[in-house]
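One-letter codes give the sequence; the fold follows as tokens. Both lines appear below.
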Amino acid sequence: MPGLVRARVFQGTQWLFEIRTEAGDLTVIRQHDGQTLPAENEPVMLGWRAEDMRVMAGEA
């Protein structure tokens, strides 16, 4: 799924990304492993395994 990095926050052992997609805004958490990661306003492609996905209640 294509997206755009709206914000990213380093949290010590992981990164928190806010990604804008056609399906809506997503929060992505990635473990910090030293790799170069996308900057804010950079386009990205998202993919995940079904067992790694968590659905959370949204605002009404």
Notes: The chain is about 0% helix and 45% strand. The longest strand covers residues 2-10.
